[in-house]
Amino acid sequence: MAYIQFPEDFKWGVATAAYQIEGAVRQGGRGPSIWDTFSHTPGKVLNGDNGDVACDSYHRYEEDIALMKELGVNVYRFSVSWPRIFPEGTGKVNKEGLAFYHRMVDKLLENGIEPMCTLYHWDLPQVLQDKGGWDNRETVEAFVAYSELIFKEFSGKIKSWLTINEPWCVSFLSNFIGAHAPGNQDLALAVNISHHLLLAHGKAVARFRDLDIPGKIGFAPNVTWLEPYSRDQEDVEACRRGMGWMVDWFLDPIFTGTYPAFMVDWFAANQAPLQIKDGDMEWIKQPVDFIGINYYESNVGRHNPQGGMLEVESVDMGYKKTDIGWFINAEGFYNVLTFIADKYGEIPIYITENGICINDGVEDGTVNDQRRIDYLKGHIAAVARSLKSGVNIKGYITWSLLDNFEWAEGYSKRFGIVHVNYRTLERTKKESFFWYQKVIGNSWLEV
Ligand SMILES: N#[N+]C[C@@H]1[C@@H](O)[C@H](O)[C@@H](O)[C@@H]2O[C@H]12
Q1: Which domain holds residue 110?
Q2: How much is the pLDDT for 236?
Q3: What is the pLDDT of residues 130-159, one digit of tens each?
Q4: Rg (CA), the chain
Q5: Does residue 414 register a pLDDT over 90?
Q6: pTM for this model (two decimals)
Q7: pLDDT of 1
């Protein structure tokens, strides 16, 4: 049996997010978020599911941490629920909310698990949405004030910080495509929101530096790889637009202080002009200490004038698919990681999300999710290959520890290495849990 050994200091972890696992939405002083509103709006979430209970991790976090301890992870990536801290988005602080996260972080530290905190994982306080949400520049300032409070409150306990999770989803998926909260379908609005998210990120990083908070800070863009179906210029340019939309649009401003001109022009031609105020780009290009990369799938793309706003379509090349319909292609993971390293340099990278939707259920007390093991094996091998090619990857965090509320798909889609029975809330370790436990224990991959 051959092995791929990972570096001595390579970190292994699991990830979750507040709205997807906590539940207790009307307990502990929490205020409503846009996902409370969206999930309770008929037709928005499959089967009318919502995060009211989810995995009940607000009450069961000790059980979840015991699972992490058994798994042997070094890092736990979680998110703080902004409306659990500021029920009105700003102003009065909910001390019960802070106390909950102190209990959880203290329990992680007691168990030798490093907390990695995502400040924004999509649960914007509804009060702020009622004032325009991320389209309103006041929300940028509200995010900075929220971030400052959390920085100060957990300084010394939390040393790895992520400002915003998947700004492409927060802006374009949620305000142009409209599949996520708040469900707008307006490209110009989405472009403006994408800029405000980057501004919020940059200002929060600047505040983190000003406060001299110990630790490292980054953000977590979702990325993909689009392989041109042919070398025809039209196909190559169509794929460049697809990658530009999800990758360059969010990384260029932070690493170069400018947006990719070809995308600025494309949006302008689609009546969605980018509006930048003096000084914005200076804020946005605050240096980060690392990037979190969220990767799930890649596609083969080709030009199609009827292929939506970007005039690009995905070509089914017969790759295996996950139970949410995404193509499985670990080669794309390697391609996008090396693309990022080539374009943005030696910046340390954590894989902050990688995983697969496999909906296998419990049979005889276990879940035989071999397809998840195969996916994880192929993608962790792609990480090893990228490392060998010189990509500065510091850790791998799989999505997710638990099956959880999968946004507009509700509870129908399962990404966890631990199965959750949503009626009894019983956790059942899947075969992938034990496989990942072995990878972590050895910090090597059997190939
Ligand atoms: N879908 N899917 C799974 C996973 C989602 O559950 C996370 O909350 C997001 O950060 C990212 O989209 C990836």
Answers
A1: 3-446
A2: 98
A3: 999 999 999 999 999 999 999 999 999 999
A4: 21
A5: yes
A6: 0.98
A7: 81
What positions carry a catalytic annotation?
166, 353
Per the prediction, the chain carries an average pLDDT of 98
120 CB within 6 A, ligand 1: no
Domain CATH code at residue 66: 3.20.20.80
Task: Look at residue 327 in the predicted model and tell me its pLDDT.
Answer: 95
CA of residue 349 to ligand 1 center, whole Å: 18
pLDDT in tens, 34-92: 999 999 999 999 999 999 999 999 999 999 999 999 999 999 999 999 999 999 999 99
Does 406 contact ligand 1 (Cβ within 6 A)? yes
> Of all protein residues, whose CA lies closest to atom 1 belonging to ligand 1?
406
Mutate to test the pocket of ligand 1, among 322, 353, 398 (most ligand atoms within 8 A of CB): 353
Residue 179 and residue 408 in contact, taking contact as beta carbons nearer than 8 Å: yes
Is the CB of 432 inside a 6 Å radius of any atom of ligand 1?
no
Query: How far apart, in whole angstroms, are the C-alpha atoms of residue 385 and residue 392?
Result: 11
Which numbered atom of ligand 1 lies nearest the CA of 166?
10
pLDDT digits (tens, 9 = 90+) for 225-237: 999 999 999 999 9
pLDDT band (50, 70, 90) for residue 370: very high
Nearest-atom number in ligand 1 for the CA of 407 is 6
Residues in CB range of 148: below 8 A, 6 or more apart: 204, 207, 211
The total domain count for the chain is 1
421 annotated among ligand-binding-site residues: no
3-class DSSP string for the chain: CCEEECCCCCEEEEECCHHHHCCCCCCCCCCCEHHHHHHCCCCCCHHHCCCCCCCCHHHHHHHHHHHHHHHCCCEEEEECCHHHHCCCCCCCCCHHHHHHHHHHHHHHHHCCCEEEEEEECCCCEHHHHCCCHHHCHHHHHHHHHHHHHHHHHHECCECEEEEEECHHHHHHHHHHHCCCCCCCCCHHHHHHHHHHHHHHHHHHHHHHHHCCCCCEEEEECEECCEEECCCCHHHHHHHHHHHHHHHHHHHHHHHHCCCCHHHHHHHHHCCCCCCCCCCHHHHHCCCCCEEEEEECCCEEEEECCCCCCCCEEEECCCCCECCCCCECCHHHHHHHHHHHHHHHCCCCEEEEECCCCCCCCCECCECCCHHHHHHHHHHHHHHHHHHHCCCCEEEEEEECCECCCCHHHCCCCCCCCEEECCCCCCEEECHHHHHHHHHHHHCEEEC
ipTM of the modeled complex? 0.99
